[in-house]
């Protein structure tokens, strides 16, 4: 693992886990934490191709790319990047969003929306 990969990995892992400075120095612990994050995101962060699909969007998107992908404004994309649970990775002032993690997040939102609707219907029935 190169120093650049190690630094990037530490930044990514900091977003999803809490590493002590001792753990950041131990490469074996870094690799284990990387595996844990990949399991959580459902993707291999270091071994994916830059553009692995024919949809024209890279595996890891910038905010303008994500805005275009979701067909929303750039301001809304940046706002979303600060939402709790949103799969954005902040690297300094830069923000990146893994496409697979974004798609997984969107599916979870769809499921949560259906659950909320069902709960509202139950409450409405009880009021009758």
Give structural notes:
By secondary structure, this protein is mainly α. It has 2 domains: 3-41; 60-126, no CATH class. 61% of the residues lie in helices and 8% in strands. The chain contains 6 helices and 3 strands. The protein has a 3-stranded antiparallel β-sheet with strand order 1-3-2. The longest helix is centred in the last third of the chain and has 29 residues, at 99-127. The termini are far apart. Residues 46-51 have low confidence and may be disordered.
Tally the structural domains: 2
Radius of gyration: 18 Å
Tally the beta strands.
3
Poorly predicted spans = 46-51
User: How much helix, percentage-wise, in residues?
Assistant: 55-70%
Give the SSE string: HHHEHHEEH
Report the biggest beta sheet as strand number plus sense, adding barrel if it closes: 3 strands, antiparallel
Beta-strand proportion: 5-15%
Number of helices: 6
Structural class: mainly alpha
If strands are numbered along the chain, what order do they take across the biggest sheet?
A: 1-3-2
């Amino acid at each position: 693992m190169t120093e650049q990969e190690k630094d990037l990995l530490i930044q990514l892992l900091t977003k999803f886990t809490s590493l002590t400075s001792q753990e950041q120095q131990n490469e074996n612990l870094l690799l284990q934490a990387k595996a844990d994050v990949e399991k959580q995101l459902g993707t291999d962060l270091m071994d994916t191709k830059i553009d692995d699909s024919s949809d024209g969007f890279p595996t890891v998107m910038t905010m303008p790319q994500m805005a275009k992908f979701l067909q929303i404004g750039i301001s809304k994309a940046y706002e979303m990047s600060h939402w709790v649970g949103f799969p954005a990775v902040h690297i300094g002032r830069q923000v990146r969003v893994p496409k697979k993690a974004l798609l997984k997040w969107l599916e979870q939102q769809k499921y949560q929306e259906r659950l909320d609707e069902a709960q509202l219907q139950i409450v409405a029935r009880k009021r009758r």
